[in-house]
Amino acid sequence: MRQLSKTDLGITGVSGQLHRFLTQAWRLQPLYVSLYAILLSFLIGGILISVIGVNPLTAYWALLRGMVGDGNKLAGSLARSVPFIGSALALAFAFRAGLFNIGAEGQLLAGGLTAAYVGALSWMGNLPGILTIPLILMAGTLGGAIWGGIPGVLRTKTGAHEVISTIMLNSVVLFVARWMVGSRDPVVLRDTESTVPRTKTISDTAVLPELVDSLPTLHFGLLALTGLCFVVAFINNRTSLGFEIQTVGLNPHAAHYAGMNVHRVIVLTMAASGAFAGLAAASEISGTSGYFQPGTFFLMGFDGIAIALLARTQPIAIIAASLLWGSMLSGAPLMQQEANMSIDVVRIIQALVLLFVAADAMVRYLFKVRKQDQSPFQANTIGATL
Amino acid sequence: MAQINTGTAAPVLEVDNVTKTFPGVVANDNVSLTLNEGEIHCLLGENGAGKSTLVNMVFGLYQPDKGTIRVHGKETRFTDSGDAIAKGIGMVHQHFQLIPVFTVTENIILGNEITKGTLLDFNTARRQVLAIAERYGLAVDPDATVGDLSVGEQQRVELVKALFRDANILILDEPTAVLTPGEVDDFFSVVRNLTQQGKSIIFITHKLREVLAVADRITVLRSGKVVGNTTAKRATQQSLANLMVGRDVVFRVEKTTTNTSTTALQTRGLRVQDNRGVQAVTDLDLEVRTREILGIAGVEGNGQRELVEAICGMRPPNGGTVQMLGHETTAWSPRRIKQLGVAHIPENRSKHGVVAQYSIADNLVLNRYTHNKFSKRGVLNRSAINTEAVALIEQFDVRATGVTAALDTLSGGNQQKVVVARELSGNPQILVVAQPTRGLDVGSIEFIHRKIIELRDRGVAVLLVSAELDEIMALSDRIGVLYRGRLAAIVDAADTTREKLGLLMATGSTTHPPQAQQ
After folding, report:
1. What is the CATH number of domain A16-383?
2. Is the ipTM of this complex over 0.90?
3. What's the whole-model pTM score?
4. Fewest CB atoms less than 10 Å from the CB: which of A180, A228, A302, B309?
């Protein structure tokens, strides 16, 4: 095999030192590739911006102030990030069982629909918030769990691969939701007094308490979903359920031998995975919009995939990755305003991040990261034998 | 080291003081080897002794750090296996490099296609394949699909493939590991036929019986060094084993005869299907008593796997019953059966027995993590798991850097010791064990055999399934022979012979003459 000489790329001298610094000072072992991927993406994004004719420093400075420039901007960034935590957790949790749940997009919709339906039930207004808020969150969680559980059941009963079935179910729920929310004859869930297709507004008692009155509203869901990440981290690392899930992911045959119920674990993991997305959707409905519109969750599920991979499917890292992802989107308008750069630049940078995380050989070479942790893409997935 | 010359044959291959180092390990240390024309040269050594490294250098897959390799007297340096093939060196790997959906001819010409213009010239290729097959007595059907062939037939395809590329020096890496006893004999006659036609063969193995049966000369490697150089005529199994391991080896583990008592495991009319829905085990009545090792012999694929999986709850039977320790366990889950006191050392370690990415500690509790010693209310007790692992590693002599080391950093023998440690701890009443020493080195085999006998002497009922007749004969008190899913016979180990068992394995009967195998 041909070896590239160390001087082929001048960058490696500097970056090697950077890596040593991070190794010794920061101890962020499994996340190096992600950090470097972000760095590299902003570098390339900067080149792109200068090609367009704008000073990248000006643009990035505006982006940064748009993200965290003042209290209101920071709160808005946090608020924008909340649902990403749920959708990224949905992918990451299933991934440990060797399941590639790319249906968070649909599970968000399913959870959003059920949450909005329950939240707008007329008797909800007569109950106190201590009952209605758990009810609306549970409704969304259940909706997501069902929509995530179906591919799990299909996988165990028929062998249908979850990648295919979750993609299909994304479309199914999208069109069902559009019809339910849009149809005037018959009226299913549509708020007939509204000019746009949306559900009725949920009752006041089912609104999540807000933390900061920002735009969008920073609500209690941030704490709920952040807490959930810690719960999932605990389940993964410390419980026998987490041990079973990981065993099924790494070697389903050994799991069967060891007396684990592989089918039960698969269905349960997929349902839980969908539940996380459903909870995120419910907290958005309850905390921000107050009603369901099919467009609300557009691309949130797919962004969740990118975020989960950026966090190398570690639940705690998902919090940080979601905050970065959401605040970049939240900060982009100021960049457009001040530096006259299209919001799409942020999307391009995010796409580059995903590319570098997925194709990590390049990053590892440039930054001299030895192969210690596995790329999530190379981890074992369940064979077709189940 | 002095070379022993047999006859006047000229050396076709000379490996001269070759050293190869990998990070942290000297895989070959000043190794020399001379292969004469028309001889079978056995390369003997335990796993990790450096046999593969040596032949991979001869085949051009690695380059030596020091030393020279001469082919037909000329010094050569191969940069890849293509160079080696061009010099007339062929290799049959332990894991065949065949494409199952291609026909025999397609596999053989792959990478060396005969073309007519831009089209493949199948007719010429087919004729050449047939000519080679006939000349060397390698019966292959050029039009059969490789996936439909038996392992022995696939091996012949590999040989024809090497010969098709005009190989004069053939390297055979553990060629008998996958063969049944009958196939091994056939294979030996093929190999002898090849040498009579002027081919020279390097034969890698760790099976001593085969070395003595087939070799002209023998080179023994240990820890990357040549520790012995002898001929088959002068060597004995004992002398070779001592050379390989570097100390005296006990072949037959001492075993006291015992009085068996009650029935621990019993099947009645057991019927089990394989993955394709074919009836693999038919109406099987079996009884294992406490303080007894019942060996199940048989050519692989005669229902052994399905029998073991049905007993251990991994495969629901489609008829009959299994009773263990006074319970009818036919429909029980693997976990419930384990908790009853049934240990299971599975046939396929890497598929069922371990999770390669897990630490040793996690693998040691793989099927026991629900025990209240290791978890309470669903939360794992990591310190208890680690304490247990430290104790078991010590007790079972697992060579590892620590309990947190990933299992796949261990050698095969040590991985198997982890499985054995897990299954034998916790006082099992019944042990079901399949192919316990497959692919292991002599030292590990001895250790595991000792443990199995120890267990029997403590009163455990042991069901031992093995394709190694030697293993069955050395350990068992009684021997059952499985033939096409039925029990062909049950005999006392003391008054049976290798030949009688071989006949039972091949034909299912001792009274009828052997029938032609399909």
Report:
1. 1.10.3470
2. no
3. 0.79
4. A302
